[in-house]
Amino acid sequence: MVVNSRRQLLKQIGVASTAGIAGLAGCAGSPGDADDSGGSGDSGSGNDDDSGSSGGGSSGSDIEELTVGVFAPYTGAFAPWGESVTTGSILAKQDLEEEFGISITLKEYDTETNPSTALERMKRAVTSDGIDFAHGGISSAVCTSMGSWASDNGVSYIAQGASDSITGSACAEHMFSVYQSNTMMARSAGPRMANEADSWYILYSDYVWGQTAQKVISATLEENGASVVGSDATPFPGDDYTQYINNVQNSDADAVALLIPGLDARLATEQMMNTGLHEELTLMYHQFEDLVLWGLGKDAASAVDIGPTGWANAVEGADEFKQRVVDEGDTDPFARHYMAYTSLDQQVRAAMRAGSTAGADITTELEGHQIEGPVSDIQSGTMYWRECDHQLIQPTHVVSGLDTGEMKDDPWKEWFGVDETIAGDELARACEETGCQL
Q1: Predicted pLDDT of residue 50
Q2: Residue segments in the chain with a per-residue pLDDT below the cut of 50
Q3: Could you check whether 6-180+317-393 and 182-309+395-434 share the same CATH topology?
Q4: Going by fewer Cβ within 10 Å, which terminus of the chain is more open, N or C?
């Protein structure tokens, strides 16, 4: 019988011993409420293809149950995003359990969008709660903190941040990135940005995601013949963007790029609308996600001129998946549902192909693997896990706000249209450019 999970190993040698082997100070605790332990409870259990019947390992018949750590910001600056990670994971769990006849337990952990907090909860999830592998994160800084530790301790982790740093010099042996990188999104939007306006002002959040985005957006604009006339690093999280909006107004810029995530992007947009600036300038939202503008209304949504994104509910097909999101969750379908579904789907299928949940075995199954099966019904086009940096190469979409009269609210909010879809191979950095040493 194969010892196919870290959880089984922990049962054999004990938590304290495992923590010692990993060189850790032990992490005490047990699953509970997010307020005291970071866990939100359990969701319960219940072709080079992705059927689990081919690949480098066995058919996975020895695996009967799995425990997966789902890391999301249930509180903090990205709190509205947390539910979507849960919902996407639940939908993948349902499909995988039905297909493979296994039992999957989802254990949820609140990252609070805090790298230190997220790291401590990852340690507890592995050494005390016995998860087999993990996904989630949202914030790139959070992802890197958790993913580096998990990888060092032989645990597979799929990050859902988008900073180039995740698949750059900070890459880790058993960490993968499901979200298109900053470079992929910048290169998808750059030509359109240059066509829309000659001079740009950039507002970017002053942490790793915003910093890397600012660099690649500036370079991409210049490569396409446009100029950056000014830029400001803004605090994250922030509560007042007035001074930065004034800087934009006082510049010669024809357009503004908001490299600001989450609720901060919503706040910056609201304050910009109060000045009327959204009616004067071209607006670009980096790593655009519908949820930001859903909270401000249709007039704000219609002001979005350019938004590179990993997935949107305006992408053709996948109507069944979109309806399931509506039925299961509290938020209309957007990129994070797709990212969470894909993360769990791919890790479980890799484990089934390998007949093992060891980080090294899952890594072997994912590297170079081309995705076919349910995920390819949600995101069409060529998708594969690149071996050199563990980036998921996949299409990237550029969206813009529809006219308010064209927006739909039923069966789900569809306020944005897809203007262009670009293949991932056309956008990703060359392996030698990443700085990743895998």
Answers
A1: 65
A2: 1-37, 40, 43-47, 52-60
A3: yes
A4: N
Helix (H/G/I), strand (E/B), else coil: 195: helix
Q: Rounded to two decimals, what is the model's pTM? A: 0.88
Answer left, alpha or beta for residue 285, where phi above 0 means left and psi between -120 and 50 means alpha.
beta
Q: Where along the chain do its domains lie?
A: 6-180+317-393, 182-309+395-434
Q: For residue 187, is it left (φ>0), alpha (ψ between -120 and 50) or beta?
A: alpha
Give the pLDDT confidence score for residue 207 in this predicted structure: 86
User: In this predicted structure, what is the pLDDT of residue 57?
Assistant: 32
Residues 6+ apart with CB under 8 A from 201: 228, 229, 230, 231, 247, 248, 251, 253, 255, 256, 257
| Count of other CB atoms within 10 angstroms of residue 48 | 11
Domain 6-180+317-393, classified CATH 3.30.210.10, yes or no: no
**Cross-strand pairs, 202:** 231, 257
Rounded CA separation 11/9 (Å): 5
Note whether 323 and 411 are within 8 A (CB): yes
Residue with tokens 């099966």: 373
117 forms bridges with which residues in the sheet? none
Element (H, E) at 246: helix 242-249
CATH (residue range 182-309+395-434): 3.40.50.2300
Are the beta carbons of 70 and 38 closer than 8 angstroms?
Answer: no
pLDDT at 55: 33
- Collapse the DSSP code of 179 into the 3-class scheme (helix H, G, I; strand E, B; otherwise coil) and give the result: coil
pLDDT of residue 237: 87
User: According to the model, what pLDDT value does residue 215 have?
Assistant: 93
